[in-house]
Amino acid sequence: MPDIAPDSRHAAKVFPSPNHGARNGGRAPDMLVLHYTGMRDAGAALRRLCDPIAEVSCHYFVFEDGRILQLVPEARRAWHAGAGFWAGERDINSASIGIEIANPGHEHGYVAFPEAQIAALMPLCTDICARWRIGPARVLAHSDTAPERKEDPGEKFPWDRLHAAGIGHWVPPAPISGGRFFAQGDAGPPVEALQAMLALYGYGIAVDGSYGPRTAAVIRAFQRHFRPERVDGVADSSTITTLRDLLAAMPGEEALKTSAPAT
């Protein structure tokens, strides 16, 4: 029997994982979610993603040296995102294609992503987004969809470089400076306005005017993706201005997909 060809020409071959199923409702993916593996060894991470006992998987796996394997067909629902939310969508696995990028992550000596890895990842992302018509603001970090559980791919991931290559939504982060800020324990209409902006962008957050742990986690996720110089969960003027600029630059077709905030 001939080898199965990968869906993307940028993958070297198919290395099949048994961990997948049908997309709920037969829907087509309209998100791309990027992860890091969060394990010390890429080989061990790959084995886990193919282990039926682990019940996790992804569509593509990118090694540090740029080699790419496809583990799950794009038309199938891989088990990479878990419980999450983005712009009204709660079944992120059915809505997305997931890419695991080999990196030890925050728990095992988080390091910069090698040049060869990013150089290989970018054309893969471009190809997937073009074929599935995934808009820029639907290219997400795992931490965007699950801010209280996940940190990946983290603040070292070069989202600015991907955007320069036509992948993802991005604006230059506003400089960090002084001024008013919001943090855990704050409450009132200004906090409610901040939460409404985050919800409008797509984050799962209740607009209740209380800056609690969930709001702090969402701010950290936002900072990791869009203002990585300082990740502290504090909504300073740099964070708020960057969020405002992102909303102002939101492509029209993406704005139509925003929804009511999560509760």
Overall number of strands: 8
Distance between the terminal alpha carbons, to the nearest Å? 50 Å
Runs in which pLDDT lies below 50 for 5 or more consecutive residues are: 255-263
Strand content: 5-15%
Shape: globular
Structural class by sheet pairing and helices? alpha/beta
Query: What is the overall pLDDT average?
Result: 94
Strand order of the largest sheet: 1-5-4-7-3-8
Order of helices and strands: EEEHEEEHEHEHHHHHH
Rg, rounded, reads 18 Å
Question: What does the largest sheet look like?
Answer: 6 strands, mixed
Amount of helix:
25-40%
SS element count, helices: 9
Structure commentary:
Residues 255-263 have low confidence and may be disordered. The protein has helices at 42-49, 92-95, 115-132, 142-145, 159-164, 189-201, 213-226, 237-248, 252-255; strands spanning 13-14, 20-21, 31-36, 60-62, 68-70, 77-78, 96-101, 139-141. The relative contact order is 0.14. The chain contains 9 helices and 8 strands. It is α/β, with parallel strands linked by helices and 263 residues long. It has a 6-stranded mixed beta sheet with strand order 1-5-4-7-3-8. Strands 2-6 form a two-stranded antiparallel ribbon.
